[in-house]
Amino acid sequence: MASAHVAWIGLGSNLESPAAQLASALEALARCEAIRVLAASSFYRTVPVGGPPGQPMFCNACAAVATPLSARALLAVMHGIERAHGRIRDVRWGPRTLDLDLLAVDALRCDEPTLQLPHPRAFERAFVLVPLAEIAPALVLAGYGRVADLAAAIDRQGIERWDGA
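Predicted structure:
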């Protein structure tokens, strides 16, 4: 894959068999000709952050991919995978079949309405940092610090390995 970028993706679901949604999303990423999945974290059961009360628990993970695609093109592919999994964007931080977040691409920094890199809330969310530290502990989230350090300092209450139940 010529001129490949390394990108890190956060995956989440709390509807319709969440772990199966994440596994299917990883398979969909791997089937894309312009994407090579380099690593995927374990799955984690996490409490919902924000959004309406009473949501089911989330299943979260992170993946590293290599791609020649630009960050915007990769994000478009990710949104297509979300749509194929029945994602409806009607309630901010509400329940969803699949959520794919572009966390970082190389050391790129971007602050536009439709693309912010690194992800502006990744550094403060255990459901991102714990799985990301599993696959990319040395990754530096520009402006925030090294993932391993951020994960070590974060409150891990409400996050545990997904047991398949």
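Summary: DSSP finds four helices and ten strands in the chain.
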